[in-house]
Amino acid sequence: MSQYSIAVLAGDGIGPEVMQEANKVLDAVEQKFDVSFNRTAFPVGGYAIDTEGEALPSKTLLGCEQADAILFGSIGGPKWDTLPLEQRPERAALLTLRSHFDLFSNLRPARIYPGLESLSPLREDIAKSGVDVLVVRELTSGIYFGQPKGREGEGEEEFAFDTMRYSKREIRRIAVAAFEAARKRGGKVTSVDKANVLVTSRLWREVTEEVAKDYPDVTLDHIYIDNATMQIMKNPAQFDVMLCSNLFGDIVSDECAMMTGSMGLLPSASMNEDGFGLYEPAGGSAPDIAGMGIANPIAQILSAAMMLRFSMNLTDAADAIEKAVVSTLEAGVLTGELLPPEQRAEAASTSQVGDEIV
Amino acid sequence: MSQYSIAVLAGDGIGPEVMQEANKVLDAVEQKFDVSFNRTAFPVGGYAIDTEGEALPSKTLLGCEQADAILFGSIGGPKWDTLPLEQRPERAALLTLRSHFDLFSNLRPARIYPGLESLSPLREDIAKSGVDVLVVRELTSGIYFGQPKGREGEGEEEFAFDTMRYSKREIRRIAVAAFEAARKRGGKVTSVDKANVLVTSRLWREVTEEVAKDYPDVTLDHIYIDNATMQIMKNPAQFDVMLCSNLFGDIVSDECAMMTGSMGLLPSASMNEDGFGLYEPAGGSAPDIAGMGIANPIAQILSAAMMLRFSMNLTDAADAIEKAVVSTLEAGVLTGELLPPEQRAEAASTSQVGDEIV
Ligand SMILES: CC(C)[C@H](C(=O)O)[C@@H](O)C(=O)O
Ligand SMILES: CC(C)[C@H](C(=O)O)[C@@H](O)C(=O)O
């Protein structure tokens, strides 16, 4: 029997309650497949600030180092928003984990599920055109981490600066990730840049063109970020894999998530070159509905499925979970935010959705 | 009688034909109001490359220097897309004009006109919620112009870099522009940044907060760029004035333009501290329909109205043009792209729309 160890970082807001459902699903996988998951919970985010004094305690980091993967809930909330930026949950925990484990490859799928088109803020004909995009975002470089960054000067001439920076190596490895993903999907990569203005984007274009030569079965297009935000609205079905730098990927993936109208369904994976990864829902900690048992656990459960697929190579188990999610949606076992207002009284609870998937 | 001189840079694609209609409207203004416009045409863009060897010939630049304002058409097209980046129409002409005249204040209004909601790619209820946004974009600094920019290193470690940079002075003057505009509109500024990651954004936030103190009648909110692209889709009616840095404004203004579904209606103004400005349609040169007499001239005509308002203080004339545009839309004198496919046979031509506005 294969064994894997998972660091479970449930975090804040709805994190703990949706994590409970993901755990149920992992229990079911253990029963159905020849595998066991050794799970250890660690504090992170605002909860860790309150209990341990910092958003990413060293025992949590150590626990992650010893695991095969990190299953992450969500962090942050108004309670910790007044802390100095560097200590806030999002930065102190999330950005640190990304860079500590070199999680450069961030996959964020966004699709509009048949039957759920009316949730999309897009016009019906666009929402029904078959939208299924995978955003592949570089996550450990670019203007997020580029040096120098700082402030200089005095009075009105005081200025602040950030550095956007990419090496060929950094671009190549994320481009490879995008082409590999496209090969298993629609065979099309659209690389997002601002090559008419940024030197970084020109290098980005050069290297993606080079990588494309190794993938004759995949087509490569380039699109400017400003045009990308327009096309996502006008005709999202034209996209298969969107390859983005860190900042542009932040923007594009959120716009794609919103376009689906169902943030509670979207998982994400952040991986390094060794297949180690952090898996988390695309949505936030939703403190306003935390503890009410009404949050949608599907994004968390699909994040667990991505973990099985990418960090453990458990393709069958991952497929099984994803199929169970689709059946659950088709069966109409839905949390309130997926229903029209007048039907919300009959909404399924967080744990009912989890049970149905199990 | 007041006299103004205008440098008319029609450019490429549909530029010349829509400019002709704007000129008709300016003729009508001369007849109705006590004013005369001394107009001189200059080559720019691809047309100037073909006829003069460069996208912004020195006589064009000189002509602009001697004018009270620049009325700009649109530039670029596939013919010039293979030129080295620095020589291409968009960069060589547009970015040079912006920085030469210090046109730091870029105003891009985006509204969904009553009756034209079905053109929007957004869901009907969202498109009908009363969308009227003004994007105020900083246009001469930030990562577009920040130094250093370049490439260094060798092999796979070769890297490229760009610098995002803002001084307090640069932030303050564009923030003031946004607050002034908000005061005359809905009284609300939403400043777009990425203050959880960028040092530049933190200074941006500080300075906008300072400026806000001088405008107790205007409210100020901050939003992250990733969330902004989501909210524009989900609930654009929440926005009045969106204050953006150069890069974020490029993205936000294009997303807002697309959200209206009628790019051919959207003007823009790019101004400096002396009231000198460049006025141009938000859409591109549309080479595919150039010369066919079917392009919508309204964006160009509304750009002329903005010119009268901001560079010449001719408020009555500007109001008159804007009113005439609304009546023309209400009267259903519409170019094809504003009509459902089955009604396009009855579409008005470029010059019919111009005549109606006159
Ligand atoms: C919290 C923030 C720093 C983060 C980012 O910008 O990467 C978030 O928006 C995300 O996309 O995961
Ligand atoms: C052509 C390009 C350099 C330009 C920009 O990015 O500013 C354009 O997209 C715009 O918004 O006017």
Automatic annotation (TrEMBL), chains A, B:
Gene3D superfamilies the record matches? Isopropylmalate Dehydrogenase
**Any Gene Ontology CC annotation:** cytosol
User: Which SMART domains is this protein grouped with?
Assistant: Iso_dh (SM01329)
Q: Which Pfam families match?
A: Iso_dh (PF00180)
**Free-text comment on the cofactor:** Binds 1 Mg(2+) or Mn(2+) ion per subunit.
InterPro entries tied to this protein: IsoCit/isopropylmalate_DH_CS, IsoPropMal-DH-like_dom, Isopropylmalate_DH
Q: Quick one: which pathway?
A: Amino-acid biosynthesis; L-leucine biosynthesis; L-leucine from 3-methyl-2-oxobutanoate: step 3/4
Subcellular location field:
Cytoplasm
Q: Spell out the protein name for this chain.
A: 3-isopropylmalate dehydrogenase
